[in-house]
Design brief:
eight-stranded parallel β-barrel, 10 helices, 12 strands, globular
Length: 346
Amino acid sequence: MSVPTRPLHLAVALDNITAPTAEPYVCAARLAERGRFDFVTLDDSFAAPGRGRGRLDALAVLARVAPATERIGLVPTVTTTHTEPFHVSSAVATLDWVSRGRAGWQVGVSSCEAEARVFGRRPAPSPTEAWREADAVADVAARLWDSWEDDAEIRDAATGRFVDRDKLHHVDFEGPGFRVRGPAIVPRPPQGHPVVVVDATAPQAREAAVRRADVAYIRLPRTRGADRARAAAEDLRRRARAHGRDPGAPAGRLVVLASLPVALHTSADAVALASLLGSWYADGVADGFHLRPERPERDLALLVDATVPVLQHRGLLRVFYPGATLREHLCLARPANRYARTGESA
């Protein structure tokens, strides 16, 4: 019962925390870790914040959360539009290092003209163009992570050699509106590639999801959402197979989550939610759930103290983390380095 043979994956969004400091995010992530969630997500965008409310940078906040947690995965949204791909790759790799292999990133795009004016570099792209660019950014980010072989660092003080230059590789990648040569300035991350997450609700995001994502989720209502979730999951897996991926095998696995809004007032609501999640999971609707609490300070505690124990009692959810990295939580293989001559090191 402690380690299900077909684990149910759970993630929770911390988006509705409004405090201007990192401490509430630390507390929420620790609570989710106590509930054995696979990972937390934190949304971000270039949109102007609401009146009387600032917006903290999601990646920076979760970098602060990293040393205050031990096992839970940390997945900020990183917007690829208007952002240099080299910087995206470096920032996400750094999060993986400071979290000791627990980082992911949710690929974000911006097709809003008001957001484009903030940067003043170019007009806003269409959603289709933005996702085509995001696909290329995710591709080159992975190439940059591979530009250092795992054993490229020497750190030999006696000889003054820090790195084996034969194990650094140029990327020479040209995408829509950008060009990256590399190699990266950050060594290859602990996970090889931090986990790529895509909100595949919008049709324009589906192609990037099936080509690049390790985890894809679909936003759904809690009522009458099971059929939509099942159809979306089948569509994503069919498209993944068309791209040569085996979405059920570790090397090509695509974890599909149903993303549901959560508003609990009582423990009874939380137990009822466990029954809903259990029935959807038993029916093969999705591989797990991405939960979006309306009020995290209220809903997350009820999820951890009432929903999670019911799922654990039914043998659907683990009672401890069997691994240390986010890839291990999600049963994902560590990617081989495309540039290494002799394959992946252990």
